[in-house]
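Thread: "does anyone have the structure for this chain?"

Original post by V.I.:
We have the sequence but no experimental structure in hand. Need at least a predicted one for the grant figures.
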Amino acid sequence: MLAKLLNYKDQIFLFFIISIVIIPIITVISYIFSPSTELWGHLANNLLAEYLFNTFVILIFVGIISTILGVSCAWLVTMYKFPGKDIFKWLLVMPIAIPTYVAAYIYAGLVEPSGFLFDSIENTFGLGKELYNLVDLRNIYGVIFILSICLYPYIYLLTYSSFKEQSGCAIEVGKSLGLNKKELFSKISMPLARPGIIAGLSLVMMETLAEFGTMDYYGISTFTTGIYRTWFAFGDDTSALHLASILLTFVFILITLEKYSRGRSKYAHTSQKSKSVKPINMSIKKSIYAFLWCSLISLLGFIIPIIQLFLWLMETYSYLFKDEFLKIIMNTVTIAALSSVIIVLISIYASYVNRSTNSLYTKFSLKIFSIGYSIPGVVIAVGIIIPITLIDNFQASIFGSPIFYLSGSFVALIIAYLVRFSTISFNATESGLSKIKNNIDLTAKSFGFSSFKILKDIHIPMMKTTVITSFILVFVDIVKELPATLILRPFNFDTLAIHIYELASSEQLSLIASPALMLIIIGLIPVIILIKKTVNNGNQNEIRN
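Reply from O.Q.:
Generated one for you, tokens below.
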């Protein structure tokens, strides 16, 4: 009945965007009930426990360490004065610009026996090779280290904005009641910041579950690597989808827990008038400790990886001018730009439908539309391959051969990007559209403007900045995406992410400098946007979106 409130075009559109997201999910879930193969019996008896253990251990420890890093840095930068504080505000955000798999390759090259670190130690102290086994990163501890130093900014950003938005009055009342610094932190600031911490932690865990490149290169068996190997090494789609369904269950559990925890962690100020928290001076000793702590995290997360890449670039700078590399850049830019335009246009229309109708049917449809970002790229990829293969087979049964192959085509790749990254664009465009007053629509309709004309001629020009920002954010995420691109790309079609993965897989680590720096430079664009919106303004809603 609610659907009748919409015109038929909007109904078709909503059905279309729901189908795009729900079909891969239904495909994966449906294979839970499919007959098991011989390979699945082997996986269940010998490897499934290892997948579960490794995934669970990495998830827990990355969550704990990232929370410690993110909350501690946010607390120091917000509440205290110490040398370098203004620099650390933005420097601590920078690791988010480095893809986790790139950081994994960099540190692997850094600590290998012939790497820069051990060469320096050996030349200086006569040691190096003897220490290799002590700092070997190609294990589960290395994965936890890499993911923690790369993903903690999610928690840092949201926690920083939570601390910054807190009322100074609450802190002062706490002081008047005799609370010391530790008690102010644990009894006032942390409860107020808990929703932001939970939101940041959920993002960290989602990214951890979706991680493929680091796990694969460091030789750690998790669900993402298991799905990929089962599909491509053994050609068993049924077993791969069994694994994908278990991973999808993890995702849904995390989503449920995050929503439940955030719902129970709502705090509000009792006064409309509040003054901001004033940073307090620290003793010289504590200032040094704060400086060293923030410096260490900044070094590990951003500065050392960048230095290592530039050292490699000095050795391989000629690679920048090779035709092969230029072709890969063009491939990356082309597919990312095309996909981003499609995603942004669909998101704008979805936001407008939601604004125009505001029905339960619309809200439900868009809720489904928005869950795609939570699903790992490898799960989306295998969930897309099956239905498009069925479509190809159906074409072949009617016409003798498919008129248009979907398998291994750009269509499959763009659909995967649409499922994975539409949430980013939709949140941005919906936020921008909500700032336009409804009376503008009413006035335009009184002059005979159609809904499409209102959207095209009025809304989009008014939210031009939002549209551009949305495009940039989606573009960057597509450029960095690895597993979905690796599985669904057309034959002989390489992107920067794929090229880095292949170079690292063949142990040509120094050659990753050029494409990796290109990825990081592109990734810095949304980081700058986040700094402006969060670090400067302390707007928690903006960063959460």
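V.I.: this helps a lot. Residues 1-5, 270-274 have pLDDT under 50 and may be disordered.
O.Q.: and Residues 62-222+277-311+507-545 form a domain with the MetI-like fold fold (CATH 1.10.3720).
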